[in-house]
């Protein structure tokens, strides 16, 4: 008994430190907001692409964690001097690489609130508001996109907020796999075939590997410039017929609205007609361009989605909602649930047993999940449909402007038609005297990209389309305006001029 009393006294005298004292949290929180506000105020002054060398941070940080506490002021000073130089500034208005990863005041504040609550909403009972708000905002967003009612909770389908498109594709692929194997037998997994185009994001191939699809049964169907790199329905059907004749089982098609390389849009109506003949699950990946379809003038690109089984887009790309936030809608939630659910005793509860609630743990890979719906709810309410449409239209308008600048300079060409807010261009062969070989032209454009990026003034990325090296100019950063686009074009022109002269002198 005495030992228990001693233990009680020891514990009372050594109570754990309070790491969440409200007033100190308030003070440090203000410091952090001020730090971020200052960062956004001067972000365009930093080199857009980090200029550090590999291993730089290990050379300037201690080898071991500190034994004694350090103040937030000291830590933020190190962020300024040591971390920021190693950041590629995705929020710079001069960032035109890859695709945008937009932020907004509403998105950040919603993320902050979600982090502050720090709930783990794996099931309804774990935090009812987290689940029910997600149901509401995914239905709101689905209605903004004019998705068929069959994709909404109100129509028997439903939406879920995943981390990224990679997760959305994997979850739907696993659901399709298991549904098919229940019909054909589990020992037929080696016969299942997945289809996409050679322009489909690499997430599809990665998901197929994880899901146990035989690598020999992954079909990346060739596209061509003549069709603007769309997936051809006839080629798809030919591939399916060939597989059927060889005893294989067509399983899954990933069609894309806004491919990574060129923002090509696959013909959904024709593709889904082919797929349904052979009972193929159709997933539509609209990671970047899907957000634009809240605008009536872009909604046409989703025509045919009514015949798909699942649809996803990344709100963190072009919808002012911070990373990560991938919106996935499915027509048949039970297909996901049958593949992804687990029900251990320690998670059992009356609400789940009644089948009257949604347990999102059964709609995703992980058990734990963040309260992502808060930040999407903040964005939808803070800006409204009207302002969100104008935000997207503003970027499309700037892309049209940039496209016009390229067209006016006879040294350059737009390689594929612009559909949204990205322009694919290059120095054209006729501008490089004595360098008519395609490989040489590609090399000049590669040097242009590296030269521009090394300057730190802007950041662009590249792709290869039909053997042609292309520079991708993707507009979409929250802080970008028309002046940044004009200045970016001047940077491109200046560096191109120097390279063209060098090429002429070396011929």
Write a structural description.
It is a single chain. With 507 residues, the protein is α/β, with parallel strands linked by helices. The chain has 16 helices and 11 strands. The strands form 2 sheets. It has a 7-stranded mixed sheet, sandwiched between helices. Helix 5 packs antiparallel against helix 14, helix 7 (165-184) packs across helix 12 and helix 9 runs parallel beside helix 10 (268-277). The longest helix is centred in the C-terminal third of the chain and has 36 residues, at 373-408. The mean pLDDT is 94. Belongs to the group II decarboxylase family. Residues 1-20 are annotated as: Disordered. The modification N6-(pyridoxal phosphate)lysine is found at residue 317. Residues 1-18 have a biased composition (Polar residues). InterPro entries: Aromatic_deC, PyrdxlP-dep_de-COase, PyrdxlP-dep_Trfase, PyrdxlP-dep_Trfase_major, PyrdxlP-dep_Trfase_small, Pyridoxal-P_BS.
């Amino acid at each position: 008994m005495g030992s228990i009393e001693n233990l009680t006294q020891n514990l009372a005298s050594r109570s754990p430190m309070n790491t969440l004292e409200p007033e100190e949290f308030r003070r440090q929180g203000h410091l952090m907001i001020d730090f971020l506000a200052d960062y956004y105020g001067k972000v365009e002054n930093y080199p857009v692409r980090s200029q550090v060398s590999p291993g730089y941070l290990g050379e300037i940080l201690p080898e071991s964690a500190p034994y004694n506490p350090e103040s937030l002021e000291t830590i933020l000073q190190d962020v300024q001097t040591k971390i920021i130089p190693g950041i590629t500034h995705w929020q710079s208005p001069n960032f035109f690489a890859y695709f945008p990863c937009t932020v907004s005041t509403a998105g950040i504040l919603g993320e902050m609130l979600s982090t502050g609550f720090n709930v783990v909403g794996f099931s309804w009972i774990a935090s009812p508001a987290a689940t029910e708000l997600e149901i509401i905002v995914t239905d709101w967003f689905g209605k903004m996109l004019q998705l068929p009612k069959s994709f909404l909770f109100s129509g028997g389908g439903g939406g879920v907020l995943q981390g990224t498109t990679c997760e959305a594709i994997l979850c739907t692929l696993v659901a399709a796999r298991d549904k098919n194997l229940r019909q054909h037998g589990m020992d037929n997994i080696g016969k299942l075939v997945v289809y996409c185009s050679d322009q489909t994001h690499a997430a599809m191939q990665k998901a197929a590997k994880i899901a146990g699809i035989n690598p020999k049964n992954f079909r990346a169907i060739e596209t061509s410039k003549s069709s603007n790199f769309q997936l051809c329905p006839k080629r798809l059907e030919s591939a399916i017929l060939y597989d059927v004749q060889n005893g294989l089982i067509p399983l899954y098609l990933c069609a894309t609205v806004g491919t990574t390389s060129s923002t090509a849009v696959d013909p959904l109506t024709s593709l889904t007609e082919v797929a349904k003949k052979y009972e193929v699950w159709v997933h539509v990946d609209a990671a970047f361009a899907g957000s634009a379809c809240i605008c009536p003038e872009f909604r046409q690109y989703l025509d045919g989605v009514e015949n798909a089984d699942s649809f996803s887009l990344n709100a963190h790309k072009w919808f002012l909602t911070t990373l990560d936030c991938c919106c996935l809608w499915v027509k048949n939630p039970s297909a996901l649930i049958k593949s992804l659910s687990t029900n251990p005793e320690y998670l059992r509860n009356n609400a789940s047993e009644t089948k009257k609630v949604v347990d999102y743990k059964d709609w995703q890979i992980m058990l734990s999940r963040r309260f992502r719906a808060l930040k999407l709810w903040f964005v939808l309410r803070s800006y409204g449909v009207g302002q969100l449409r104008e935000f997207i239209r503003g970027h499309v308008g700037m892309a049209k402007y940039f496209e016009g600048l390229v067209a006016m300079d006879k040294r350059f060409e737009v390689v594929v038609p612009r559909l949204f807010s990205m322009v694919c261009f290059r120095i054209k062969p006729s501008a490089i005297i004595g360098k008519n070989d395609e490989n040489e032209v590609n090399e000049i454009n590669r040097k242009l990209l590296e030269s521009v990026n090394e300057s730190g003034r802007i950041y662009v990325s590249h792709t290869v389309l039909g053997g042609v090296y292309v520079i991708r100019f993707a507009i979409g950063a929250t802080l970008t305006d028309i002046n940044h686009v004009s200045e970016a074009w001047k940077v491109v022109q200046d560096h191109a001029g120097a390279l063209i002269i060098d090429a002429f002198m070396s011929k």
